[in-house]
């Protein structure tokens, strides 16, 4: 999986904390991406028309965005105790 990210984004940091807590961090390749509300990232917009970080790109090229949605998806991928309540 590929994560469009920036260390400046609190939403990216939330996803990365989630990935570390669930043991999924090694499966995520981070791609440093610069976005600004007044300067959308053309490359990122190919995957996410909102041009927002974080955006997670799956191996089948499905794009998942919004940090909460990404975290909920990641929670389905591991065998540890689930972090989202049922
Ligand atoms: N609700 C979104 C918010 C994401 C968000 O606003 N990310 C900022 C970076 S911290 C961004 O991509 N801003 C660029 C823009 O708004 O064009 C989430 O939880 O992922």
Task: Considering the chains and any ligands shown, give keywords for the structure.
86 residues; alpha+beta; Glutaredoxin; 4-stranded mixed β-sheet; 3 helices; 4 strands; 16% strand; binds glutathione
CATH arch. level architecture: 3-Layer(aba) Sandwich
Radius of gyration: 13 Å
Q: Structural class, judged by helices and strands?
A: alpha+beta
End-to-end separation in angstroms reads 25 Å
Determine the number of helices (DSSP H or I, runs of at least 4 residues): 3
Shape: globular
**Which small compounds were modeled alongside the protein?**
glutathione
Total of domains: 1
Q: Tally of extended strands?
A: 4
CATH homologous superfamily? Glutaredoxin
Top-tier CATH class = Alpha Beta
Average of the residue pLDDT scores: 96
Poorly predicted sequence stretches spanning 5 or more consecutive residues: none
SSE order: EHEHEEH
What is the third-level CATH name, the topology?
Glutaredoxin
Which band does the percent of strand residues land in? Answer: 15-25%
Task: Write a concise synopsis of the structure shown.
Helices cover 29% and strands 16% of the residues. With 86 residues, the chain is an alpha+beta fold. The structure holds glutathione.
Structural write-up:
This protein is an alpha+beta fold and 86 residues long. The protein has a single domain, classed as 3-Layer(aba) Sandwich (Glutaredoxin), CATH 3.40.30.10. It is built from three helices and four strands, in the order βαβαββα. A four-stranded mixed β-sheet has the order 2-1-3-4, with helices on one face. Helix 1 links the parallel strand 1 (2-5) and strand 2. Helix 1 packs parallel to helix 3 (67-75). Residues 9-11, 35, 37, 40, 51-54, 66-68 line the site of glutathione (GSH). Residues 9-11, 35, 37, 40, 51-54, 66-68 line the site of glutathione.
């Amino acid at each position: 999986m590929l994560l469009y990210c920036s260390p400046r984004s609190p939403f990216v940091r939330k996803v990365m904390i989630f990935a570390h807590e669930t043991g999924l961090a090694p499966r995520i390749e981070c791609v440093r991406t610069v976005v600004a509300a007044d300067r959308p990232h053309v490359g990122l917009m190919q995957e996410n028309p909102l041009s927002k970080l974080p955006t997670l790109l799956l191996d089948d090229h499905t794009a998942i965005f919004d940090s909460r949605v990404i975290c909920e998806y990641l929670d389905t991928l591991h065998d540890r105790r689930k972090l989202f309540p049922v």
